[in-house]
Amino acid sequence: MAKTSMALKFQKASPQFEEQKMIQAARLDPRAFGELYLRYVERVFKYLYSRVGSVQEAEDLTAQTFLAAFESFDRFHQDGHFAPWLFTIARNKAMDHFRRHKKVSFTHEISDVPVEFDPLEGVVQSEQVDTLSRLIRTLPEEDRELLRLRFLAEMSFPEMARLLHRQEDAVKKSVYRLLSRLHNQMEVSDD
After folding, report:
1. Are 149 and 160 in contact (CB under 8 A)?
2. Could you tell me where the DSSP H helices lie in 53-81?
3. How confident is the model at residue 77, as a pLDDT?
4. Closest alpha carbon to 136 in 125, 126, 148, 127
């Protein structure tokens, strides 16, 4: 009995358990879909903004993503895998956008990096951000997408693997190798 109550306490604290409760509530009452919206809207917006580079276009695509998710929610049967399903919709909306506008996807520059009051520190941070942004822009689209999903969409490795139809270990290795390569390139640029 003690193990059961501990398992229940763990489940209640688990983000996956909370998400499951939100999904079940939304299945019973469509108005409860708003909780899923609140949970993911910022992550979806950041991801889409990094793809299109325009606040207005990212807001429009975010709205389209959630509208499509809401309209097709009755067909969502992957309980426990809401984020990969939602970001599949977001990726498709971004791809539709690029097909319509014939633009190439890119990772938008990092802009909201806090700068310390020390002017020298601010210059160093600014140069590092510029260097990192430049390095990211030179990456192949597949690598930039890994960074977007991991750091802007804040997806876990299992979620990314499900979305990308790859093994979790392969996704994890790809991200860590990419980060290591960027770190090494940043060190070389500091010399």
Report:
1. yes
2. 55-71
3. 81
4. 148
Evaluated on CA atoms 114, 122, 183, 55, the torsion sign reads positive
How does DSSP classify residue 83?
H
Instruction: Report the residue count for the chain.
Output: 191
Measure Cα distances from 69 to 28, 37, 58, 72, 151 in Å: 16, 10, 16, 5, 22
Domains in the chain, please, with CATH? 15-117 (1.10.1740.10), 123-191 (1.10.10.10)
Q: How far apart are CA 48 and CA 91, in angstroms?
A: 8
Q: What is the mean pLDDT of residues 51-64?
A: 95
3 pLDDT exceeds 60?
no
152 with 46: CB under 8 angstroms? yes
What is the distance between the terminal CA atoms of the chain, rounded to a whole angstrom? Answer: 61
Closest CA to 95 of 84, 86, 104, 82: 104
Please write the tens of the pLDDT for every residue from 11-26: 455 778 888 899 999 9
Angle, helices 82-101/157-164, rounded to nearest 10 degrees: 50
* Nearest C-alpha neighbor of 125 from the set 139, 110, 136, 135: 110
- Distance separating alpha carbons of residues 20 and 80, to the nearest angstrom: 6
